Amino acid sequence: MSQTPSDALNPGDAGSGALPPIPAKRYFTVDEVAALCGVKPHVLRHWEQEFTQLRSLSRGGGRSLQRRYYQHHEVLLIRSIRQMLYQEGASIASVHGRLEYLAVRQAEDVQAALELRKEMVQVKRELQDILRELQG
Predict the structure, then answer these.
(1) What is the rounded CA–CA span in Å between residue 6 and residue 88?
(2) Residue among 75, 81, 108, 79 at smallest CA distance from 94
(3) For residue 36, how many C-alpha atoms fall within 13 Å in the half-sphere facing its CB?
(4) What does DSSP assign to residue 55?
(5) Within 13 Å and on the Cβ side, how many CA atoms surround 120?
(6) Under CATH, which number does the domain 6-135 receive?
(7) Is the sign of the CA dihedral 124, 107, 86, 33 positive or negative?
(8) DSSP, residue by residue, 67-84
């Protein structure tokens, strides 16, 4: 069965051993993400440079004391990248293309949702006008 690009962001079972569940917390350290995603910390650093969609947060004191943190959605993205590269054998260029395609689709979905909301607001106004006429 063929996998669509949107399936890539739902890795489920990664094939070579299930990944641990992602705990319900706001931020994850590099070491935590490495363990959750089955990759080494240096791979995460490389992927951060390779994939602009990955943006860890830096917190802490001076430059040498800063720690990087990831959020839940980034852990999911890292798992997806891992699946595409390791389980599916996709190239870096292919993963770039799939992520760009997904970003465009997501932007289109957001735009469609905004337009639908505007239409719903207009329908609500019209229904309120009808209700006022019926009551008056």
Answers:
(1) 14
(2) 81
(3) 25
(4) -
(5) 6
(6) 1.10.1660.10
(7) negative
(8) EEEE-HHHHHHHHHHHII
Q: Which two tokens stand for residue 24?
A: 């319900």
Residues in the chain, how many? Answer: 136
Would you put residue 123 in left (φ > 0), alpha (ψ -120 to 50) or beta? alpha
Find where tokens 């293309």 sit: 97
Q: Which residues pair with 28 in a beta bridge?
A: 70
Maximum distance among all alpha carbons in the chain? 71
Work out the average pLDDT over 53-76: 81
Cα dist. 63→31, 47, 60, 67, 112 in Å?
Answer: 19, 21, 8, 9, 42
Q: How confident is the model over 86-120, as pLDDT tens digits?
A: 999 999 999 999 999 888 898 898 899 999 999 99
In whole angstroms, what is the distance from residue 85 CA to residue 87 CA? 6
Domain boundaries, the chain: 6-135
Whether the Cβ atoms of residue 38 and residue 78 lie closer than 8 Å to each other:
no
Task: Count how many Cα atoms sit within 13 Å of the Cα of residue 66 in the half-sphere of its side chain.
Answer: 8
